[in-house]
Amino acid sequence: MHTFHLTGALARALVLTLAVLAAGAWAQAPSKHLAPGFVHLDNGEKVLLMPVDVELFSLSAGGVPEPKADWTAAATGFMQQALVDKLKATGLQVQPGDEALGDEFAEQVGLHAAVARSIALHHSMGGGWALPTKAGLLDWSFGDAMQPLARKTGARRAIFVWVRDSYASAERKAAMVLMAMAGIGLTGGIQYGYASLVDLESGRVLWFNQLTRGSGDLRESEPAKESMGALLTGFPAAK
Predict the structure, then answer these.
(1) Which of 150, 156, 161, 144 is nearest to 203 (CA)?
(2) Each residue's pLDDT tens digit, 126-181
(3) Which of 30, 211, 27 shows the shortest CA–CA distance to 136?
(4) Residue of 161, 147, 154 whose CA lies nearest to 109
(5) Strand 157-168 to strand 53-59: parallel, antiparallel, or no bridges (unpaired)?
(6) Which of 6, 126, 162, 182 makes the best surface tag, with the fewest CB within 10 Å?
(7) Is the pLDDT score of 227 beyond 70?
(8) What is the pLDDT of residues 171-219, one digit of tens each?
């Protein structure tokens, strides 16, 4: 049996080589937010921002969500502006879609919501819900369903945002206090949403993020900016 001994110089060289290889492998590890092979957008690239799909609710004492049209209207404006500002800051040209565009392509907007829920469950949450065929990669597509939107707008890529937010009413807050005294916890409002960057020609989802938390307020401008900033976490900067 032969025993090999490394000199100090050789040992240091070996350690350095292994460290470089490990760093390279780490750097090449795919981001959970990005589709395989997609790294960044081009600086100055024009991206369509679809009208946000948002609805706000008030929770009754019993926890029943009641739609609030005035809150939703205010949130729509705050969110859309916050998204435009945030995306422009990444180096993109943003083409905001109006309400008429959202109505005309309501089917695509609804399809995005359905696919986004699937991505959130099987990719973002993963674990026992992960799909073995995806191998942990962001590998989802709308097929050719988004091509009519590309032909209509001339856009190559688009951003879709879906958000639902709820707030405890005064009655709900009172119930929460009473139940807490009895040792029973009741939840307040929940803010959750999805955002996707989609290649309209191929249908591929290039970037995705979700937001789920018990804080945030979309009814006012500044808090809405914070929420949209959180939702765009991991969005690829233009280069």
Answers:
(1) 144
(2) 788 889 989 999 999 999 999 999 999 999 999 999 999 988 766 767 666 666 77
(3) 30
(4) 161
(5) parallel
(6) 182
(7) yes
(8) 767 666 666 777 776 666 789 999 999 999 999 999 999 999 988 999 9
Residue showing tokens 């469950």: 121
220 CB neighbour count, 10 Å cutoff? 11
Whole-number Å distance between alpha carbons of 196 and 176: 35
> What CA–CA distance (Å, rounded) separates 78 from 147?
29
145 Cβ contact list (under 8 Å, min separation 6): 107, 108, 111, 203
Domains of the chain in start order, with CATH, are 31-231 (3.40.50)
3-state secondary structure at position 146: coil
Q: Cα dihedral angle (109, 113, 118, 124), rounded to 10 degrees?
A: 110
For the stretch 54-107, pLDDT in tens is 999 998 777 788 999 999 999 999 999 999 999 999 999 999 999 999 999 999
In percent, the amount of the chain with pLDDT more than 90 equals 64
Which helix (H) or strand (E) segment holds residue 16: the answer is: helix 8-28
